[in-house]
Amino acid sequence: xxxxxxxxxxxxxxxxxxxxxxxxxxxxxxxxxxxxxxxxxxxxxxxxxxxxxxxxxxxxxxxxxxxxxxx
Length: 71
Prior knowledge:
71 residues, 5 helices, 2 strands, 54% helix, globular
């Protein structure tokens, strides 16, 4: 998938665990884990806003577009 989620890097930079972030943004650990691994198909703007607020980042810091190479 061309959209990459950089949640691991942001968590590390903020010295925060996935569990702590899940509690702060009021999202289940399972759903946050799905997002972290890049398996999520969608994300609500309210969730994106809450994650950015807690990690003190911009949406572009969390999501990155990397086009797939043509075969």
